[in-house]
Amino acid sequence: MKCPVCNSELFAVKYHGLIVDTCKRCGGIWFDPDELRFYIDFFLQDNPDLPPPPINHNKKTLPVVQSPDYQKLCPRCGVPMRMFNYACDSNIILDKCPRCDGIWTDGGEVKQLAQFVKGNPHLDALGKALAEHTKKLDAIKDWTVLSRDFSQSAGYKVFLPKIILPIASEPLTLVVPKVVFAIILINVAIFTYQSFYVEDIVRFFYQYGLIPRVVASGKQYYRFLSSMFIHRDLVHLLGNMFFFWIFAHNVEARFGHFRFLLFYLLFGLCGSWLDVFTRIHSSVPAIGSSGAISGLMGAYLVLFPRSKITTLIINQAIRVPAFLYLGVWILWQILFGMLYASASFSPPVSWFAHIGGFMSGVVVAGLFRALQKKHGEPDSPFPQIIRGLH
């Protein structure tokens, strides 16, 4: 890629696990979507003594006038970039590609951005006080409106929780899911370690998360494995382990312990590869075991299509056929995956990791079941699975 200012060759530079393209002649830096905010965070960590910006009570927002003959071209797409005022009122004018949403910063602008993001403590304190006061006024207003609505409607009802969540699956099995327990313990142990012993959690995610741009260059393949066992927060961990338990113990009983472990890792690998393929230039790490868990859900669909999944819908628990629940679930993933496919930023959920894992689970379970029938083997190597619910 060429520098849009001096036309020099840009060089890839690694900074805290983030890979950006820099110009050695003019000091400009090219940021792919989502990279700038992480770069600023790292910059502030490395420069804790960076002075805050001065308080300007008469500050006016600079207007951005886009000249029709503006010549800065996107290093990646080659189209003319457009100027914009960072955060609308920072008065730091940057260049952004309208096609890929990449951002170009001239030399010295990163420091200005870091100062702006750091803010002035005195001004921040005043802003927080005003925000808290506004919040209290809004709360009083909300309670007033709520009281009025209750007084005008005697039939008002509040339905909680308004969720659709699987809470149990069939068939019943007496097999002890040893591998399932082991994987849950490993995930919990790693999360405990990162919660209590990792000081810089963002750097930890960049070190062990799956960064498409890094692995696509043929480096650090260990990330495919390490990213499957780290989670963003407690809610992320509990959500994944809950879905894992609902579907995994029956699949382990059907596959057998050793094959279950191999297939679990394979499903996670397939999901990760599809995620990498769909955001090949991204430097934002993906973490979590949802790709592998989605593979187990795909395998469950093939192995137990007519079994029932007890599902909580609003405030009712009903038994839904597996093919219906999982069919709707994967359609939901595909829908959102397609919506985010054209987006220039990394989605908050790795939809394509879910899709890749699920599809690999369907294929593997289908082949497994076909081989069993070909060799005349029973449906399950474990007689403890209760029949009639498959």
Task: Give the key terms.
single chain; Rhomboid-like fold; six-stranded antiparallel β-sheet; three-stranded antiparallel β-sheet; disordered C terminus
Helix content: 40-55%
What form results from the Cα inertia axes?
Answer: elongated
**Quaternary structure type:** single chain
Gyration radius, to the nearest Å? 26 Å
In CATH, what is the class of the largest domain? Mainly Alpha
| Distinct helical segment count | 12
Order of H and E elements: EEEHEEEHHEHHHHHHHEEHH
CATH architecture of the largest domain: Up-down Bundle
**Strand arrangement in the largest pleated sheet:** 1-2-3-6-5-4
* Number of structural units classed as domains: 3
> The CATH topology of the largest domain is what?
Rhomboid-like fold
Based on DSSP secondary structure assignment, what is the total number of beta strands? 9
Mean residue pLDDT:
79
Largest sheet entry: 6 strands, antiparallel
Taking the alpha carbons of the first and last residues, their distance comes to: 56 Å
Structural class: alpha+beta
Instruction: Report the β-strand fraction as a percent range.
Output: 5-15%
Q: Kindly report the name of the CATH homologous superfamily of the largest domain.
A: Rhomboid-like
Low-confidence stretches: 139-163, 386-390
